Structure formats: C-alpha cells, structure tokens
Amino acid sequence: LPNVLTASRLFLAPIFFVLFMYGNRLGLPVTFVVPALWALLVVIELTDLFDGMAARKLKIVSGFGKLFDPFTDVLARISYFVCFAWAGIMPLWILMIILYREFGINLLRMLLVERGIAMGARSGGKLKAIVYMVAGLVSLLLWSLLQFSVAVPEALSVVVTVSYVLAAILSVSSFLDYVIQFRKYRPKA
C-alpha cells in the first residue's frame, strides 16, 4: 500500500503538468481544468502524507521506500513548480535553487546507496516539504483566481512571495543538513 500511494505521484504529476500547460489548448473549459488541478494537487499532497504513515503503521518501512518516496515527491513538486514558474507566479531563481538542491540531494543519496545506506528524509527536509506544499497551494489559488478573472488580493500575492522565499531558504538549509548527515555516514577516506 505505501509504495502504491507513492507510485501514484509518478502518474498524477504529469497529468497535472499537461492539464496546467495545455488544458486550454486542448479545448478543455477552465471550469474543468481548475477543479481538476485542485483535485490532483490535493491527492498528490495527501499521498505524500499517507504513504509514510501507512509504511510505519504496517511496519513495512524499507530502504526502497526511503528512496522512492522522496524521488516521487521531487518529481511531483518540480512538475507543479515548473508550471507556476512558466505562469510567472514562481520566481525562476527560486526554481533554480530548488532544482540545484534536489539534484544535490539525489547525488548524496546515490553515493550512500553505493555503501548500502538509504538516507531517508530528515526533519529539515520534512519542514521544507510542508513549505513547498503551502507554496503550491497558494500558487494554485492565485492562478485559479486569474483564470476566472477575479481580482487577486494583495495579501495573497504577498503570501505567495513569502512562501517561495521561505521555500528557497529551507531548500538551502535542509541541503546543508543533508550534507552534514552525509559526512557522518561517509567518513573521509
């Protein structure tokens, strides 16, 4: 069950991307696209919450799951962050910080796998994931309002900006935490 929940993000993320980027070009009405994107984003984020809970409850935490879960998290979140950056909601420089962080973490994990170590999520990475989720939700709210030609409250624009700045800060700080953890697992040769 946990791996099925995790794997669902591999399928849902591209659907989110296609609907966001091409929904209008495919002739889909905004009254379909916007609710569908909300449903996809909520399901993506809920599966991220429930897969780990299910693995712990069923006592089937595995090295594979420790690597597969963060991989699918990154795939899903990068998919919607690219959409929001393309729409001009997410600053490109923050997207690049997040991409550099995620590729860096993947490198560290691959280097540890060579030694038979599966480095799972760290508490800083989990906090970062919460901020990513919030950034995704408020960005989708802003984009949804724009799709329906509703005036965007200034407070929402501020919340979106602050959420992305926090995401960038937590990306860097959690990456440094992973580097410290990596050094503990892989002492100098």
Brief characterization of the structure:
Helices cover 80% and strands 0% of the residues. It is mainly α and 189 residues long.
Instruction: Report the mean per-residue pLDDT as an integer.
Output: 91
Query: Oligomer, anyone?
Result: single chain
Radius of gyration: 17 Å
Question: What are the segments in which pLDDT stays under 50 over at least 5 consecutive residues?
Answer: none
Percentage of residues in helical conformation: over 70%
SS class:
mainly alpha
Sketch the major β-sheet: none
Net shape: globular
Task: Tell me what portion of residues adopts beta-strand conformation.
Answer: under 5%
How many distinct beta strands?
0
- Our count of helices gives 6
Distance between the termini: 40 Å
Give the ordered list of helices and strands. Answer: HHHHHH
Description:
The chain is an all-alpha fold. 80% of the residues lie in helices and 0% in strands. The protein has 6 helices and no strands. The chain is globular and about 55 Å long. It starts with a helix and ends with a helix.
Secondary structure topology:
Elements: H1 2-22, H2 30-57, H3 63-86, H4 92-113, H5 123-147, H6 154-185
Helix pairs in contact: 1-2, 1-3, 2-3, 2-5, 3-4, 3-5, 4-6, 5-6
Key words describing this protein structure:
6 helices; 189 residues; globular; mainly alpha; single chain
